Amino acid sequence: KQWYQRRVRECCGLNDASDWSANNNVTYAHYWTQTHVNDVPDTCCKNVVEGCGVDQATGNSDLINNGGCLDNAVNFMESRMVLSWVLLALFILIELGTIVLAFFIVRPATFACFTTGEEA
Question: Distances from the Cα of 77 to the Cαs of 4, 71, 83, 92, in angstroms?
Answer without folding.
Answer: 16, 10, 10, 22
